[in-house]
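Async update (no meeting this week)

Hi team, since we skipped the sync, here's where things stand on the single-chain job. The sequence we agreed to prioritize is pasted below, unchanged from the tracker. I ran it this morning and attached the output directly underneath so nobody has to dig for it. Comments welcome in thread, and please keep replies under the output.
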Amino acid sequence: MDKAALRKEARARWRTLDRKALSEGVLEGLLPWLRERGFRDILLYHPLPHELDLLPLLERYPARYYLPKVAGKGLTVHPFGPLAPGPFGLLEPTTPPVDPRVLDLVVVPGLAFDRRGYRLGHGQGYYDRFLKEVQVPTLGVIPEALLFPRLPQDPWDQRMDFLATEKGVFPTVGSDDGGGEGGGW
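Output:
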């Protein structure tokens, strides 16, 4: 299937899921993983209606949190703070931007992921352009129901280092962090 058909299928799958329960399941596995690694400066995202909501991390895991903001064809990084409506129905920060090199983890939503860590987004390329420039660990967040064996890949697609699902956090298949074939699945 091409990416347009996969986006349609992924959106249909999302409509059948209990996003609140899945968000809590992902958080339960994510918290010990974060504590073990000690991440301190984390780029989160403000969830769209079909995405998992990880904002409870703000109260459950002590760190400095940031949110992305669409700026032209890219993303800028802003300390978590007051929000205002932005493009695509997103709530975006109103705080001044900071250098993305402060980050030590980028948490990325998606319509779907595959076990290699490739992401199916909305097709605008914001995260791919951003991740190409910011060299820090990346964590894709997705329900198991939206984890495909393999997604089509374009040369500009950026691969996640880890994936978090309601079953836990795993290195992506073939990653240098012990993913190998199977990646913990």
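Quick observations from my side:
The domain at 3-171 is CATH 3.40.50.10420 (Rossmann fold).
The chain has one domain: 3-171.
Reply here if anything looks off.
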